[in-house]
Specification:
This protein has 10 helices and 8 strands. The protein has 254 residues and is of the alpha/beta class. Helix 2 packs across helix 4.
Length: 254
C-alpha cells in the first residue's frame, strides 16, 4: 500500500495484474470516512484478485466541506489514475468505482454526472481523460435526498443546512439517471438500520426505466448497514464480493 498525493492510498495487485482498477469511496454520511472496514479491507480484496485499488480520502463536512468538494476529489482521482495508467499498468477503459453508504452516492453521482458536470474545469484543471468510471458499485448506498427515504445526515453534510428543493431533486440520484449510465452493481440488506433499503430499489428501478445494460441489484434478507468487506457474520454467510467478482468478469472488466 502506498499514498498517492495527499488523498488516496494505492493497493497494487498481489497476483497477476488484470489491468483493471477501482476507486474506493468509504462511507460516513459525507461527514467522516470508514477507512478500515470499507476502505482498507476493500483495497486488500481487490488487490487479491489482481485489481489495482485506490482508496480515496475525499473531503467531508467534518472538516467544513460540502458539495462540490467530494465530487471534485473523485474526479481528480480518476484523472490521476487514467493519466498515469502506464505507471500503474492499467487499462483506462477499465477503471471503476465502489462506494459504501454516502460513498455509494458519490460513485453513482460520478457515473451520472460524469459528462454533465466537470467540477475540475471550474478550478482551472483540464484533462483529456474521461472523468466518468467505467462501472459503479454502490453498496447500501444513500441515493435519494427526498424527505420520505433520504438519509438526513448525509443530505445535510453534502448540501449544508440551507439547501433548496431544487438541490434535493438534483442530488436525488434516482431522478438523474442518464441514458448512458455505466454498468451498476447494487448491494443492500433489507434490514438496513441506517439508510432505508428503498434507496437501492429506487435507483435500480430508475436504471431499469432507462434500460441501462449490465446492471444488477442484490438484496439480502439481513446484514444491516456497514458490513463492508470485513470477515464478519454477513461475509461468512453470503461472501457478497464473489458475485461482484463474477459480474466484473461478465462485463469484461477483469
Amino acid at each position: 500500500m502506498e499514498k498517492e498525493e495527499t488523498f488516496a492510498y494505492v493497493f497494487r495487485p498481489v497476483i497477476q495484474n488484470t489491468g483493471a482498477a477501482v476507486i474506493i469511496c468509504p462511507g460516513g454520511s459525507y461527514h467522516h470516512l470508514d477507512m478500515i472496514n470499507e476502505g482498507y479491507m476493500s483495497g486488500k480484496w481487490f488487490a487479491s484478485i489482481g485489481v489495482t485499488a485506490f482508496m480515496l480520502c475525499y473531503r467531508t463536512s467534518e472538516f467544513g466541506y460540502h458539495h462540490p468538494a467530494m465530487l471534485e476529489d473523485f474526479q481528480r482521482m480518476i484523472q490521476i489514475v487514467r493519466e498515469n495508467a502506464d505507471e500503474y499498468d492499467i487499462d483506462v477503459n477499465r477503471v471503476g468505482a465502489i462506494g459504501y453508504s454516502a460513498g455509494g452516492h458519490l460513485v453513482a453521482m460520478a457515473g451520472e454526472f460524469g459528462k454533465k458536470v466537470n467540477e475540475l474545469e471550474k478550478l482551472g484543471i483540464k484533462t483529456t481523460q474521461s472523468l466518468r468510471p467505467n462501472f459503479v458499485v454502490p453498496v447500501y448506498p444513500v441515493v435519494s435526498m427526498q424527505d420520505d427515504i433520504g438519509h438526513r445526515w448525509s443530505r445535510k453534510s453534502l448540501l449544508g443546512k440551507h439547501y433548496t428543493k431544487q438541490q434535493q431533486d438534483d442530488f436525488s440520484l434516482e431522478m438523474q439517471v442518464p441514458s448512458d449510465m455505466p454498468p451498476t452493481f447494487i448491494v443492500v440488506a433489507k434490514d438496513d438500520n441506517v439508510v432505508k433499503y428503498e434507496n437501492s430499489l429506487r435507483l435500480n428501478k430508475a436504471l431499469e426505466a432507462k434500460k441501462i445494460k449490465n446492471c444488477k441489484l442484490t438484496v439480502y434478507d439481513w446484514g444491516k448497514h456497514g458490513f463492508g468487506m470485513k470477515n464478519g457474520k454477513f461475509m461468512k454467510a453470503f461472501h457478497w464480493n464473489e458475485p461482484l467478482k463474477e459480474w466484473m468478469h461478465e462485463i469484461k472488466m477483469i
